[in-house]
Specification:
It is a single chain. With 252 residues, the chain is an alpha+beta fold. The chain has two domains: 176 residues, Gcn5-related N-acetyltransferase (GNAT) (Aminopeptidase, 3-Layer(aba) Sandwich); 68 residues, no CATH class. The strands form three sheets. Strands 1, 2, 3, 4, 5, 6, 7 and 16 form an eight-stranded mixed sheet that branches. Strands 8, 9, 10, 11 and 12 form a five-stranded antiparallel sheet that branches. It starts with a strand and ends with a strand. About 4% of the residues have low confidence.
C-alpha cells in the first residue's frame, strides 16, 4: 500500500470511494441525498480544481494500482497554526487494513511542513467507528457542534491532536487588538469557531470576557463580521463564512 499526492485523473475514483464509504457507514442517510451532497462538494469540475490548487491537499492510498482511500486536508488558521483533516474515507472493502492510519500519518507530515502545530478533525456523534479511530490515533475530544443534514440536526464531535515530531505546544489565551474604529479589544483565541476559510474568534471589550464586542475573522484579520439570529457568521471583507456545507471527516 502506497500513499501519494492525488492528481486530477484520480477524481472519479475519489468520488466513487466517498460514495461507497458514506453508504456503508450511514444507513440513516438517504442514497439520493448522499449523491446530491457529493455532487455539491465535488461536482462540475470542483474536485479537479481543488486537486490542482494550492490550498487544499488531497492524498490517495493505493493498493495494487487501485485507489482504496483518500484524505482531504488544509491549513485553516494561521493564528493557531491549525491544520484540519476535512475528509478521510476508506473503501468498505479495505477497512481495518491500516489505510486510515497511514493517511493520517502522511497528512500530518505534509501539514507540519506547511506550519501546522495542531491538527483538527470531526466525526458525527453517530459514527462510533470514526470516533474510536481518532481516539486510537491520539486525538482528544475538544468540543461539539451542530450540523444540518437533509433538514435534520446532528451533533459533530470535534477532535484535536498535537502529534508529530518536534511539535511545540500552542500558547492559548487572549491577545489585545485594535479595531477599524481605533478601539482596543481582547480576542479569545481559545474559543474559535470554524469558518469556510479560517477561524472566527470572539472579541471582548474587557479582559474578563464579560462585554462582547463582536467577532474577529482570522482569514483577513478584520472585525467586520456579521452574525444573524441563527448564529451564522460571514466576514464582510473576505466572505469567510460559518455555514456548514459538509459533515463528518472520517468514514473508516
Amino acid at each position: 500500500m502506497d500513499v501519494r499526492q492525488a492528481t486530477p485523473e484520480d477524481a472519479s475514483e475519489i468520488k466513487d470511494i466517498a460514495r461507497a464509504s458514506l453508504l456503508a457507514s450511514y444507513d440513516f442517510l438517504d442514497e439520493d441525498m448522499i449523491d446530491r451532497a457529493i455532487g455539491t462538494w465535488y461536482g462540475q469540475g470542483k474536485l479537479e480544481e481543488m486537486i490542482e490548487g494550492d490550498e487544499v491537499m488531497f492524498l490517495v492510498a493505493t493498493k495494487d494500482g487501485d485507489i482504496v482511500g483518500y484524505a482531504e486536508s488544509e491549513m485553516v488558521d494561521r493564528h493557531r497554526l491549525l491544520g484540519e483533516i476535512r475528509w478521510l474515507h476508506v473503501h468498505p472493502d479495505h477497512r481495518d487494513e491500516g489505510i486510515g492510519a497511514a493517511l493520517i500519518d502522511r497528512v500530518e507530515e505534509v501539514l507540519v511542513d506547511r506550519g501546522a502545530e495542531v491538527f483538527r478533525a470531526v466525526a458525527l456523534e453517530r459514527n462510533e467507528d470514526g470516533i474510536d479511530f481518532f481516539k486510537d490515533q491520539g486525538f482528544v475530544r475538544v468540543g461539539v457542534r451542530s450540523v444540518e443534514i437533509d433538514e435534520e440536526t446532528y451533533t459533530e464531535i470535534e477532535f484535536e491532536s498535537k502529534r508529530g515530531g518536534g511539535i511545540q505546544e500552542v500558547e492559548p489565551g487572549l491577545e489585545s487588538a485594535t479595531t477599524e474604529d481605533g478601539e482596543t479589544v481582547f480576542v479569545d483565541f481559545d474559543a474559535g469557531l470554524h469558518g469556510s476559510r479560517s477561524e472566527f474568534y470572539p472579541a471582548y471589550l474587557d479582559r474578563g470576557f464579560q462585554n462582547r464586542y463582536g467577532w474577529f475573522c482570522s482569514n483577513c484579520e478584520t472585525f467586520d463580521v456579521a452574525m444573524d439570529a441563527m448564529d451564522r457568521m460571514e466576514c464582510n471583507n473576505c466572505r469567510n463564512a460559518r455555514k456548514p456545507t459538509r459533515w463528518d471527516a472520517a468514514y473508516l
